[in-house]
Amino acid sequence: MTAEHQRLEVNAAKKVALEQWGPYLSERQWGTVREDYSSNGDAWNYFPYHQSHYRAYLWGEDGIAGISDFFQNLCFALAFWNGKDSVLKERLFGLGNYDGNHGEDVKELYYYLDNVPTHYYMEYLYKYPQQAFPYEDLEKQNRLLSKVDPEYEILDTGLFDQNEYFDIQVTYAKQNSKDIFIKIEVHNRFDQAANITVLPTLWFYNRWHFDLDKKPTITRRDRTSVKAVHSRLGTYYLYFQPPDDRLLTENETNLERINGTANSSPFVKDAFHRAIIQGENLQALRQKRTGTKFAAVYDLHVEAGKSQTIYLRLSNKALENPFASGFEYIFQNRKEEADAFYASILPSPAGTELFALQRHALSGLLWSKQYYHFDVERWLTRGDGINGASPGKLTGRNHDWKHLKNQDVIAMPDKWEYPWYAAWDLAFQCIPMSMVDPCFAKHQLQLIMREWYMKPDGQLPAYEWNFSDVNPPVQAWAGLQVYENEKKKTGKGDISFLKRIFQKLLINFTWWINRKDPNGNNMFEGGFLGLDNIGVFNRSIELPGQMQLEQADGTSWMGMYALNMLDMALEIAVRDESFEDTATKFFEQFVLIAEALNEQGMWNEEDKFFYDTLSVAGSQPLQLRIHSIVGITTLFAVSVIDKKTLDKLSDFKKRISWFEHYRRSNKRFWPNEEIKDGDKILLSLVPKERLVFLLERLLNESEFLSPGGIRALSKYHMKNPYSVTIDSVHYTIQYDPGDSTSNLFGGNSNWRGPVWMPINYLIIQSIRKYGNFYGDSLQVECPTGSGVRMNLEQVADELTRRVISLFLKDKNRNCRMYGEYNWFYRQPGNDHLHLFHEYFHGDSGQGLGASHQTGWTSLVAQLISEQAGH
C-alpha cells in the first residue's frame, strides 16, 4: 500500500473524508450568480472582471494556483506584475457571457500538472506574458466577431510567438495536513533577461461583512513571517524567504471606486495594485502592523533561459527554522509518493503517453475541487453593502430554492468557466474520481441529494444560473458505476452507500414521474436536459396553445433511470430482502416506459430512428425528424441480470413472471428480453432489430461517426437542414461541427455536431454491455459500409480508440485537439501539456468551449483503463 493510500484510509475514517487544506480556491468568483445583487439578474455586468480587483466578494474567493482550508477562512495564492500591466495579475482573465462571440471564455494559459487526492503533492503551471497583458485587445477583437467566426484566443495575439513569457510553476508539498511547503519557480522562456514582481499573497475571506465571525487578523512577526489568527480556524504562520518588500491591507471593498463614497481608510482590497504600480500609499502599507490581506514582494531579474525559485511555508506551528537544511527533500519525497500512487492505480506502464494523459486528467479533476458557499435565502433578502435588498429578487432567479444552503467542497466542472456545481456534470465527474478517491466520489453523490441541496419535492438543483432547469437523471447510473469501480478494486461492494443514495433517488424518481409526465402516459418532457441547443427550438420553453413536446431522450433517460434503480435494488436485495418489492416496482415501471417509447409514435419505421414528438390538440402528432443523439439515448437503458440473482429472489422472480404472462396473454407490449445460455437475462429499451438499425446509423462516418468519436448531431444535416414551423414561427437546425452559431442558451456550447465526452462514454458503456451479452452472435459493420464486421465489444473498443485519439500526438507531433495552435504545443517544454476541453469539433477534433473541463472530460482516464483491461 502506498503512502497516499494510507493517508486516504485515515481520511476515510473521518466523518467528512476531506483534507483540511487543498486547491479549494475558485479561479473565478466575479460574474457569478452568488455575487449578483442587481435588480435585473444580470450577473455578468453587475460584477465584471475589472471590478474584481477592488470589490470584496461575499460568497467565496478566487486566485491563481491557490489553496485554502476547507471552509475557505484563509486563502493563499499568487499575484504577478510584468512591469507593464495596469493591474496586478491576481486572477485569471476571461470574457463575460456578452463579450465573447461564443459566450464566456477564459483567455489564459495555465495547466494542472499533478495532484493526489489528499493534496500532499500538487503542481500548477501558469504562463505569463512579458509584454502588457492584452486585456483590451482580447475584448475588442472578440466583440467584433460573429457567431460563425472562431474565437480570438490569447495565442492569436502574438505575445507568445517569440517565447517572450515566463513559465511560473507552483508546487505544494505537505509535511502534514497543516504544514504546507510551497515552491515557486519562475523560468524566463525568452532569449533576453526580464523582470517580474512576484507577490505570494495570504488573505482572509471576508465573512465579517455578514457579521458571522469576529474579524480575523494577519500580524507581522519579523522580516520573514506573519501570523494569521482566526476564531474558528486557529493560528497559522506564513514563512517566506527574505523579500524585497512586505505589504498589509484589508480585504475590504474600495467604495470610492465603486460609487464615489469615501473609504474609511486607504487599506482596501486593491491597495497592492496601486502601491506596486503607482507607488500610492506604499509606505503606509509597509508600516501597517495588522490586516486581513498580506503579500511578500519579490522583484526578480531573471536571465534569458534561466529560472529563480522562491520558497514559502504555511504551518499551524511556530517554527524556529522553517527552511532548515533538507527543505527541498519534502518536494522530492512527495513527488515519489505521487509517482508510486499513480503507478499503483493506472494500468499503463510508467512513461507512456497514455499514462501521462491519465495522470493529467485525474490531476486536473483533483485541482477542480472548490469550496462552494451559497445561502439562497440570505442572498434573496439581503443587500451586498453596495445595493440594498431588491424586492424583484423575491420573484426572480432561484426564488423558490430558499432551502438551499450550501457550504461544501465540491468537484466543479471547471473552476473558471463553471465555478459552480452542475448535477449531471457531477455525476460523470464521480466516475473518474472513484479511480483515485472512491470515498470522496461517494460523498459527492450523497451530498447532492442531501436535504440542503435537494428540493423538498425531490428535484435536484441543476446549477446556480437556474437551479430549476432539468438535467438528465444520471445519478443512479453514476452511483452504480462508482460502486462497481470500488468493488473491482477492493473485492467488496459498499452496500451501505447504495442504500443511502437509493432512498434519496426514490424521492427524485417520484418527482420526475409526477412533474415531467403530465399525461401519465410514460412519455416525458424534461426540457433541454442539459443538451442546450440540440433541439430545433428551445425545448424548455412553454409551447403555445395545446401543444406538448414528448421527448425521446426524456423518455429514454427515464427508462435508463428505472433500469438503474432496478439494478441497484437487486444488488441490495441479495443481502437485504426488504428491497425485493422495490425491485419489482422499478421493473414494472421500466416495462411501461419501454412500451411508451416503442409504441406511442417515437419510432419512425421509414427512418429506423427515434424522434421527439410534438403533440398538437386535434392533429396527428408531428415527429421532429432530426438525426441527433436524442434518438441514440435509447441505447443507454440496458441491463444484464445474472440468473443466479433471480434464483435468490424468488418473490421478485415470481412477480415478473406473472407480469410477463399477464401482458403477453393480453397482447400487450413486452420489452426486449433475451436469455443467454440460461445464465443471463438482457433487458433493454430497444429490441435487437432496432438496435442494429441504430448502430448502422451511429457507425456511419457520413452521419454520427467522426475520427474523434460520436457526433451529437448527424453530419447528414450538413446538406439536409431540418425545418419546422410552429405557431407561424419557422425553426431550422443544421450540422454545426464547431462552436455554436445560434444564441440558444447564450451560445456558449453547441450540441449540433461536436463530440461530447459524457455522451460518448455512455454510448461506449452501453454498447460494451450489449457486446458482453451477445458476443460474436451479433456483429455489425464498423464503420458502416466498410465491409469490416465487428462484435459489439470490438465496436466499443473502436469508439474508445477514436475518443482517446483526440488527446494523442501523431507522427508529426501534432494533436488534433490543438488544431491551429499545434505550433505552440510542439515547442520544447510545452509538448507534455494537456488541456481538457468541454467538447470537440465534429470533423477536425479541435478542442472547443471551456478548456479546463476536467470534470466530465477526465472520463478519458477511465476509458484508457477500460481499454487496457480488454
Describe this structure in words.
The protein has 870 residues and is of the alpha+beta class. Strand 6 (109-115) and strand 7 (121-129) form a beta hairpin. The mean pLDDT is 94.
Feature tags:
31% helix, globular, 35 strands, 24 helices, alpha+beta, nine-stranded antiparallel sheet, six-stranded antiparallel sheet, 870 residues
Strand content: 15-25%
* Rg result: 28 Å
Q: By helix and strand content, what is the structural category?
A: alpha+beta
Shape label: globular
Biggest beta sheet summary: 9 strands, antiparallel
User: Average pLDDT, to the nearest integer?
Assistant: 94
- The stretches of 5 or more residues where confidence is low (pLDDT under 50) are none
Beta strands, count = 35
Strands in their spatial order, largest beta sheet: 6-7-8-9-17-13-12-11-15
In short:
The protein is an alpha+beta fold and 870 residues long. It contains 24 helices and 35 strands.
Topology:
Layout: H1 3-12, E1 21-22, H2 43-46, E2 64-69, E3 74-81, E4 94-95, E5 105-106, E6 109-115, E7 121-129, H3 135-144, E8 165-176, E9 179-188, E10 194-204, E11 217-222, E12 225-230, E13 234-240, E14 245-249, H4 255-259, H5 271-278, H6 282-287, E15 290-291, E16 293-302, E17 307-315, H7 329-345, H8 353-367, E18 369-375, H9 376-381, E19 405-411, H10 423-436, H11 438-447, H12 475-490, H13 495-515, E20 547-550, H14 552-573, H15 580-599, E21 603-604, E22 609-610, E23 612-616, E24 622-624, H16 629-632, E25 638-642, H17 643-648, H18 650-665, E26 672-676, E27 680-684, H19 688-698, E28 705-706, E29 709-710, H20 716-719, E30 722-726, E31 729-733, H21 757-774, E32 779-781, E33 789-791, H22 792-805, H23 822-825, E34 839-840, E35 847-848, H24 859-868
Antiparallel strand pairs: 1-2, 2-3, 3-10, 4-5, 6-7, 7-8, 8-9, 9-17, 10-16, 11-12, 11-15, 12-13, 13-17, 14-16, 18-19, 20-23, 21-22, 23-24, 25-27, 26-27, 28-29, 30-31, 32-33, 34-35
Helix pairs in contact: 8-24, 10-11, 10-12, 10-24, 11-12, 12-13, 12-14, 13-14, 14-15, 15-18, 21-22, 22-24
